[in-house]
Design goal:
about 325 residues, mainly alpha, Rossmann fold, Tyrosyl-Transfer RNA Synthetase, three-stranded parallel sheet, 13 helices, binds tryptophanyl-5'AMP
């Protein structure tokens, strides 16, 4: 039986952090066994923030090495760089004709980014969800493993796929769905600053590549509160976030241990943080060692990217051909 198709990507804007790992990459690694997976580095998307050529290049290399270090196997999954597959940009152009200003302007991530950087509200930012839809539907993906923050972009991808099918009266694209392993909610990994999600630009992240000393420092500086004063008191957002991180990296036993101490008003946040830091280090250290090793091997990285580009182009060009025929482009001469 044919395997279901899966697509997902990450922008190469520096190092991968725990949010990227637990929200996306860990699922990539699990999914590669049973699905036909396309995992890419979204270098075109990253241009909305105008990286220098040097930063762009080192970012791409870093994410490629990190994908491999996390356990994505280029023999099992297709790993590629978005700009190596020009068919994606072509489909993006075509999809743009059926994407409307109003709906694009209403996207939360567009509004957030426009608010954060009022001097750089470029068209790429506005049509970001269209390019993302092109990434996904060009391989006719059924599933997209992403974190909670990408939920709306994924809804847009579904909308564009459906609209195209409807417009031409042909079922060219399946409707891509978010993927979670237990069928539960999409994941949101919190940051260390007491509010919101972990994110690179928020300055509240721990990277996979982070060294142990820096992990300890960051975790020890994480925001907490003055401690519970009543039995079974509701946790503040900052403390809840630390427990969420602990749940992600640690065992149920240690979560239950600190929970019980909290409920009895006997918790010492310093102890909780020390434990959390060591659990994070245990998780990231082996990955960090592999990243360092793989980054040394340019030849291997180039080989992986080349193989991935070939496989991704094969799939993308088939869909693009079909799309062009459906639209009505014909060879006249
Ligand atoms: P990006 O590069 O911001 O993030 C990559 C992946 O990491 C997840 N993630 C998180 N998950 C849980 N908690 C967090 N704190 C957290 N921070 C990041 C994101 O949900 C994402 O899965 N637009 C995308 C890249 C992209 C893409 C695509 C994804 C481009 N085309 C097609 C899927 C399919 C982005 O900027 O992700």
């Amino acid at each position: 039986m044919n395997k279901q198709i899966v697509v997902s990507g990450i922008r190469p804007t520096g190092f991968l952090h725990l949010g990227n790992y637990f929200g996306a990459v860990r699922n990539f690694v699990r999914m590669q066994e049973d699905f036909n997976c396309y995992f890419f580095i979204a270098d075109i998307h990253s241009l909305t923030t105008h990286p220098t050529p040097r930063d762009l290049q080192s970012g791409v290399k870093q994410v490629l090495a990190e994908y491999l270090a996390c356990g994505i196997d280029p023999e099992k999954a297709t790993i590629f760089i978005q700009s190596d597959v020009p068919e994606v940009s072509e489909l993006y152009t075509l999809l743009n004709m059926n994407a409307y200003l109003g709906e694009l302007e209403r996207t939360t991530s567009f509004k957030d980014k426009a608010r954060q950087n009022p001097d750089n509200v470029n068209a790429g930012l506005l049509t970001y969800p269209v390019l993302m839809a092109a990434d996904i539907i060009i391989h006719k993906a059924k599933y997209v493993p992403v974190g909670k923050d990408q939920e709306q972009n994924l809804e847009m991808a579904r909308k564009f796929a459906k609209r195209f099918n409807h417009m031409y009266g042909k079922k060219v694209f399946p409707k891509p769905k978010p993927f979670t392993f237990d069928g539960g909610d999409m994941i949101k990994v919190p940051g260390l600053d007491g509010s919101g999600k972990m994110g690179k630009s928020e300055g509240n992240a721990i990277n996979l590549f982070e060294d142990p000393k820096s992990i300890r420092q960051k975790v020890m500086r994480a925001v907490t509160d003055s401690g519970p004063t009543e039995m079974n008191q509701k946790k503040s957002e900052a403390v809840e976030n630390l427990f969420t991180l602990l749940k992600i990296v640690s065992t149920p036993d240690s979560v239950a241990h600190f929970d019980a101490l909290y409920n009895k008003c006997e918790i010492r946040y310093g102890d909780l943080k020390k434990h959390l830091a060591e659990e994070i280090i245990a998780y990231t250290s082996p990955i960090r060692d592999r990243i360092i090793e793989i980054l040394e091997d340019d030849l291997y990285l180039a080989k992986v990217a080349k193989l991935g580009a070939e496989k991704a182009r094969e799939s993308a060009s088939k869909t693009l051909q079909e799309v062009k025929e459906v639209i009505g482009f014909r060879k006249l001469f």
